[in-house]
Prior knowledge:
Blueprint: H1 12-17, H2 29-43, H3 49-74, H4 84-93, H5 101-117, H6 122-128, H7 131-157
Amino acid sequence: MSKTPASVWRNPVHFLAFGLGSGAAAKAPGTFGTLAGALIWLLLPPMGPLFYLLFLALTFAVGIWLCGRTAEDIGVHDHGGIVWDEFVGLWLTMFLAPPGLLWLVLGFLLFRVFDILKPWPIAWCDKHVEGGLGIMIDDVLAGLMALACLQLIAVSIL
């Protein structure tokens, strides 16, 4: 993994793309980024489904720009420390999740599994889609797969 650029600590765009600094972790920055995203999710105000979808759309669109700009500025496409995409992927996973910390932990684990293993079409997008969209899309797809699994588990046991 590439070293964390010093600009992360002085450029607000880079700081956000690096997940408020969580992506600067020496090991497993994606996991630390997802953990930071989970902590932020816990602090989000309650939202109805439509407002939550608008929140996801906004954070996705902002993420395309943040991640693309940061990658361009530092000269590394999808630097391991760019973790805004992990934030959005986890927040997508948690859409309509049942309340409770257990569900957040399960969503976290499911998202990390899909983000790390990258089954098709995640791996294809990761290799073939460029720029900020390329950085964001694989995590959004991992979030959608984790969301589907989380909802299937919830429907099966609740």
